[in-house]
Amino acid sequence: MTDHQKRNEVHTLLSFLKTHIQIYVENSFTDLTFDLEKLITSYLNVFEKSEDKYINANSLKHNYPAIDLISLKKSVAIQITTNADKKKVDKTIATYKKHSLQFKHLIIIGFVKATKSKIAGANVYGISYLTDLAKHADSNQLDELFEILKRQIPWNSLTPLDDKHCFDVIFDVINRSAIRDYTICEGSFERMAEGLDEVKEIITTGKIKDKNIRAKALVEFNDKIKRKMQEIEFQVSTILQICNLNKNKRQSDFLCLSSDETDEIDNLKEKIIKGTNLLAKELGLTKKIEGSRRT
Predict the structure, then answer these.
(1) Is 122:89 a contact under the CB 8 Å cutoff?
(2) Of 128, 208, 260, 291, which one is least surrounded by beta carbons within 10 A?
(3) What pLDDT digit, counting tens, does each position of 105-132 carry?
């Protein structure tokens, strides 16, 4: 997965969480499904050196006034709130001054809403404070951010990743030599079968074991897209079935395909390539699998 795709994932999850919190706030639920302060602490600390990391202010003093997070080394104080409107910000600054707190910087992050008014004595940001950090994250940092956000997602409510984004990830897995190359070009039938197993896995489960590749499971796509993906998955499974039957018939762990078997596999690969390209076009992706020429 490219850094661009990872960054899009992080932005999509942040946007989903913002909407999720907003729904809870608007409906006056008494608690959220996750700890916003803990989430943002972990998120920010991905970018900090060990000595600069943020800690919960309450770990220094119970009911610490005005602020939630502190970086002692950097002398930065942060308040986390869902709604950083002017009334809330003014109250925070008044409390901050009342207790004579002295930090180089006071930052207020409104995860759902943030005032656009210029405020003396504090820097006020919305969720853009977090998305801007992700813009400059390297590949490893993006992986960490995704895992932090993913742990807080209420997956049972709805999926935050749209069909186009997820199929884009799946497309890149399908567009590999195991599908793209016909059997006359295939260097190793065993490696082809391994590649097909991964294609089947990403389509059905949205991930590949021990690999940092993520989409959503087949059942989470809308019905129209799901049916077309099921057809692609069926064709991949049919190729694997041919390979397995060949091994079982010969009582061997190695593949030795006949010309009839390779012809059937190549015909299925053509259908997979055609179906994948058509679905990509339907979803607005400007990608196309170019299969090797048959002779």
Answers:
(1) yes
(2) 260
(3) 999 999 999 999 888 989 999 999 999 9
Q: How far apart are CA 262 and CA 213, in angstroms?
A: 29
For each of the domains in the chain, give its residue range(s) and CATH number, in order of start: 3-150 (3.40.1350), 163-282 (no CATH)
| Rounded-to-integer distance, Cα 112 and Cα 27, Å | 14
**8 Å CB contact between 75 and 105:** yes
Instruction: Name the least confident of 20-24, 226-230, 238-242, 246-250.
Output: 20-24
Q: Which two tokens stand for residue 65?
A: 């006034």
How far apart, in whole angstroms, are the C-alpha atoms of residue 269 and residue 189?
Answer: 14
**pTM (global) more than 0.70:** no
> Which uninterrupted H or E stretch holds 83?
strand 76-84
DSSP 183-247: TTT-S-HHHHHHHHHHHHHHHHHSEETTEEEE---GGGS-HHHHHHHHHHHHHHHHHHHHHHHHH
71, β-bridge pairs: 76
Cα Rg of the chain, angstroms: 25
Q: What are phi and psi of 10, to 5 degrees?
A: -60, -45
Given a contact cutoff of 8 angstroms between Cβ atoms, the answer to whether 279 and 228 are in contact is yes
Cα atoms in the Cβ-side hemisphere of radius 13 Å centred on 137: 30
Judge whether 221 and 163 are in contact, CB under 8 Å.
yes
HSE of 21, CA atoms in CB hemisphere, 13 A = 20
